[in-house]
Amino acid sequence: MEAELAKVLIHLTTGLENPTKAALAFLMAKTGLEEGHTVTMFLAGDAVALLRTESVESVVGIGTGALSAHVATIKTSAAEVYYSGLSAKARGITHEMIALDKAQPAMPARLLELAAEADFVLNY
């Protein structure tokens, strides 16, 4: 029996302090996309630092792979990516510093909308 395709929201708040968990969220997004699911990511809190170019290039999780490989798949996919504008501002991260061009700043209300629309929400 084939699995039904789902609308998946991946909500990530883990940042550079736990590269394995951070990379896992992006690995799951990549895997979901490769399986044909609709994937949306929302990065908040410490996770917004993962979108900076130097983070994308340097983060490697133990057993969860290089963030750069996962981001490469996400860049060329139909995935939507949002990050907390409030979290980014609090950390001095501007939109120009974001390596993932498709990532858009959003407010908490957008996260709630995405969660309500999703079939599944994965939190990392």
Keywords summarizing the entry:
single chain, 124 residues, alpha/beta, Hypothetical Protein Ychn, Chain: A, 5-stranded parallel sheet, two-stranded antiparallel sheet, 5 helices, 23% strand, globular
Architecture overview:
- This protein has 124 residues and is of the alpha/beta class.
- The protein has one domain: Hypothetical Protein Ychn, Chain: A (3-Layer(aba) Sandwich), CATH 3.40.1260.
- Helices cover 38% and strands 23% of the residues.
- The protein has 5 helices and 7 strands.
- It has a 5-stranded parallel β-sheet with strand order 6-5-2-1-7, sandwiched between helices. A two-stranded antiparallel ribbon has the order 3-4.
- Helix 4 links the parallel strand 5 and strand 6.
- Helix 1 packs parallel to helix 3.
- The longest helix is centred in the N-terminal third of the chain and has 16 residues.
- The chain is globular.
- The mean pLDDT is 96.
